[in-house]
Amino acid sequence: LMPAIAEARQDHIPLLVLSADRPAELLDCGANQAIRQPNMFANFAVYDQVVPCPTHEIPPSFILSTIDYAFSKTKEFSAPIHLNFHFREPLSPPDSELSNSIPEEYYQTISRWLDDQEPQTTYFKAPKSLVSPTAITKIQHLIQTHGNQKMMIIAGNLKSDEEAHSVVELAREWKVPLFTDVCSQLRLQD
């Protein structure tokens, strides 16, 4: 497995590495077949994420967004990513429990995904200038398609006062929250 991942990184081949593991409570306590897998491929994988054991407390939107982010990274860098899924035994509940085990409201956070099969979360690489026509077109398409209820703008260090003003106006026009990074000149403005 390691040579394949190393070659994929060297040859710029997108590769999704999925591994299964015992739950966190069985790591570092002498349990059989339990090793720490995070960062196991750190020299070659551009993204590494542990996906916790499935429970009703883990919303399906988290799982879908994690997978969407992983795919965005493997696409962006043309390189391997690693998702390590933790599981508890039994892996599947008895048939009698299966039909009643998942509450109907559990799927509400992913209703749009279930209906249209589009990614739960859309990522795109920000251009060098936040006010590029391509970025604005992509964002406008997202707002038209999905509305702005789950959108926000995060502003980092901007190159000019004109860019800063444009970002503020964009947030006002689209009625989306604007969060500023500590290095952004916008953090001290109203």
Précis, in short:
Helix content is 36%, strand content 13%. The chain is of the alpha/beta class and 190 residues long. It starts with a helix and ends in a 10-residue tail after the last strand.
Keywords:
single chain, 190 residues, alpha/beta, two-stranded parallel ribbon, globular
List the helices and strands and how they pair.
Layout: H1 2-10, E1 15-21, E2 47-51, H2 60-77, E3 80-86, H3 95-101, H4 111-116, H5 133-146, E4 153-155, H6 161-174, E5 178-180
Parallel strand pairs: 1-3, 2-3, 4-5
Please provide a written account of the structure.
It is built from 6 helices and 5 strands; from the N terminus they run αββαβαααβαβ. With 190 residues, the protein is of the alpha/beta class. The chain has a 3-stranded parallel sheet with strand order 1-3-2. The protein has a two-stranded parallel ribbon with strand order 4-5. Helix 6 (161-174) links the parallel strand 4 and strand 5. The model has no long low-confidence stretch (mean pLDDT 83).
